[in-house]
Write a structure and sequence with these properties.
Oligomer: single chain
Radius of gyration: 39 Å
Strand order of the largest sheet: 1-2-3
Structural class: alpha+beta
Shape: elongated
Amino acid sequence: MADPARARKVAERIKVLVAQGLDTLVKDPRLGFVTITDVRVTGDLQQATVFYTVLGGDQERADAAEVLQTYRGRLRSHMGKGLGIRLTPTLEFVPDALPEDAAHLEDIFRQVHERDSQLAANRTESGYAGEADPYRKAREADPVGDELDEDDESDDSDQIEKYADGRD
């Protein structure tokens, strides 16, 4: 069994070699735009699973899968020459679920955005359930002593305020 660091290096090299092979060896127009997203190699370096995505719809994906299966032997031969290891791993092509996952996430984000906009609209339309601040009371005028006598005005200067903030 190869060590994990070597398996990772071999997987990265296979990824590059398969991408080059798709560009140079495969001349089938049905291949379309194929991107190699990941390669995983078994611990004994005997099998390589190549994950790929295809730009387009279901028909383009089916055509690309068929072309990749057809050219699997040539791609393995090209990969074996470039790897330089004793045994060339067999190739297995697996369509990557990345586009479907991305579309699903975009749908979820769209739903969340719509819900946020609805909540924001409800927030602007709604008001307080009671008063704006139920703990704040308006100051009422003192009903007794609204009118001051002339002699009371002179006594005001002699009085000492009890609180610094103006409360009586």
